[in-house]
Write a structure and sequence with these properties.
Helix content is 5%, strand content 38%. By secondary structure, the protein is mainly β. Strands 1, 3, 4, 6, 11, 12, 13 and 16 form an eight-stranded antiparallel beta sheet that branches. The chain has an eight-stranded antiparallel beta sheet with strand order 2-5-15-7-8-9-10-14, with no helix packed on it.
Length: 234
């Protein structure tokens, strides 16, 4: 069945909105100074180029009830600055937040922090994300365990202070800011400097085999003509 909650091809003029191709109407709004000039060749068709300063795409809260799922995106950057691909935060504070993105100098990075709890979870692993090539980044959760992937292969993150968040997912905290390309909160931060393409969010976890196969299919130019329109789950 169709488990996709959002599919963003990021190939249309930003001022016209960011359409969701999943059929779930989770359309986004572009902010910063994103224009038609920011539509550039992507991994699959065209994609959005973010300036790393104030560009981001905002969405309504559609993940609040998700106790499991998968977020995957294609990214390309040569920037050394840490940045969020997907984040959820609060407009009037610095915490709580959760995000998946890149730590300084190309490490795959997951972060989650909530005030008043022993829950500052920071995990990262250097995978050379900022080498100027396209990479697929994926975060999948069963609700009891988190798994992270780069280019279809699982990456075991190193956890700050040995704290692993295990299965924490989007329903574990209350957020009102849901964005691509930055973290929008009282102190806006983590803006992505580079390209983001083909962001998919599911409400059910995808298997390692599915993630590897999806990467292989999307990474092969011969399969480009098979992508687009309505996506279906495994």
């Amino acid at each position: 069945g169709n488990t996709y909650a959002a599919v963003w091809h990021l190939s249309t003029t930003p001022s016209n909105g960011i359409p969701d191709s999943s059929g779930q109407d989770n359309n986004g709004t572009a902010y910063g100074d994103m224009t038609a000039a920011d539509i550039v060749p992507g991994k699959i068709g065209n994609c959005l180029k973010f300036d790393g300063v104030d560009d981001f795409v905002s969405f309504r809260d559609f993940t609040a009830s998700f106790d499991s799922g998968t977020i995957t995106a294609w990214v390309r950057t040569t920037s050394p600055q840490q940045a969020a691909v997907w984040s959820e935060a609060v407009h009037d504070g610095l915490k709580p937040y959760l995000m998946i993105g890149m730590k300084e100098e190309g490490a795959l990075w997951y972060g989650r922090d909530v005030y008043g709890m022993d829950s500052n979870f920071q995990g990262w692993k250097d995978v050379n994300l900022n080498d100027g090539n396209w990479h697929a980044v994926t975060w999948s959760s069963t609700g009891t365990s988190n798994r992270f992937y780069c280019d279809g292969q699982e990456v075991l993150l190193d956890w700050q202070d040995g704290q692993n968040p295990n299965g924490l997912w989007c329903n574990d905290q209350s957020t009102d800011s849901h964005t691509l390309g930055g973290m929008i909160r009282a102190q806006n931060s983590e803006f992505w400097d580079g390209c983001i393409d083909e962001v998919h969010i599911t409400s059910q976890p995808l298997s390692s085999a599915w993630i590897a196969t999806e990467y292989a299919n999307q990474n092969s130019p011969a399969s480009f003509s098979l992508l687009g329109g309505q996506e279906t789950g495994p």
